[in-house]
């Protein structure tokens, strides 16, 4: 696993037309049922990594309830339903940002203890945990990002949104998304480079 794996491999294409439903009229319930079937599971995975599985379950429900209540404000010409829904989910997740930051720091602390234990195995299992170790080691850096930078990074790497979808979800220009990703990549690459140098000391 490298930092670029989580931020560079994103397409720039706009979402397909079928993800741009018209949420009005007698078929609105069916449209929301389709959107739930399409997005609820991956959205839960994204939110669970941010705030924990139990809170993620509640947030998915809250996201679709909020979306239904706001359906008359949704303009399919401006954003795909996927981006709109993830924007709502991310705003709701921000209420739990303190728990998220605490969780990231706890992940890093647990990772350091596990790394100490692995040293006793003469490196026999080190290759199997390289990716996990890297993820734990950058957790503090992710926790220390601004809310906006963290949202851009995690919507891209954990939710798998394109830069266009992230821009639509957060209501910011695509250029801003790209500049934030560039800045975050640079910060995380610096961290991982220093960690790798430390491992070889």
TrEMBL record:
Region spans: Disordered: 1-23
Organism: Kribbella antibiotica
Annotated ranges, domain RNA polymerase sigma-70 region: 36-101
Alphabetized GO MF terms: DNA binding; sigma factor activity
Gene Ontology terms: biological process: DNA-templated transcription initiation
Lineage: Bacteria, Bacillati, Actinomycetota, Actinomycetes, Propionibacteriales
UniProt similarity note: Belongs to the sigma-70 factor family. ECF subfamily.
The protein's name in its UniProt record: Sigma-70 family RNA polymerase sigma factor
Positions with biased composition (Basic and acidic residues): 11-21
A Pfam family: Sigma70_r2
Domain of life where this protein originates: Bacteria
Ranges for domain RNA polymerase sigma factor 70 region 4 type: 141-188
Keywords for the protein's UniProt record, in alphabetical order: Sigma factor, Transcription, Transcription regulation
């Amino acid at each position: 696993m490298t930092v670029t794996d989580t931020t560079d491999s994103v397409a720039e294409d706009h979402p397909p037309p079928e993800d741009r439903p018209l949420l009005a009229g007698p078929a609105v319930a069916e449209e929301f049922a389709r959107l739930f079937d399409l997005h609820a599971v991956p959205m839960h995975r994204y939110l669970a990594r941010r705030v924990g599985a139990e809170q993620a379950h509640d947030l998915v429900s809250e996201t679709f309830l909020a979306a239904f209540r706001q359906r008359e404000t949704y303009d399919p010409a401006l954003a795909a339903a996927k981006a709109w829904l993830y924007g709502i989910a991310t705003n709701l997740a921000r209420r739990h940002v303190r728990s998220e930051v605490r969780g990231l720091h706890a992940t890093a602390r647990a990772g350091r203890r596990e790394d100490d234990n692995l040293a006793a195995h003469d490196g026999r299992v080190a290759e199997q945990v390289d990716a996990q170790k890297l993820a734990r080691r950058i957790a503090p850096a992710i926790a220390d990002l601004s809310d906006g930078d963290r949202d851009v990074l995690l919507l891209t790497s954990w939710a798998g949104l394109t830069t266009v979808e992230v821009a639509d979800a957060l209501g910011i220009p695509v250029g801003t998304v790209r500049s934030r990703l560039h800045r975050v990549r640079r910060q995380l690459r610096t961290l991982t480079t220093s960690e790798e140098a430390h491992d070889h000391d």
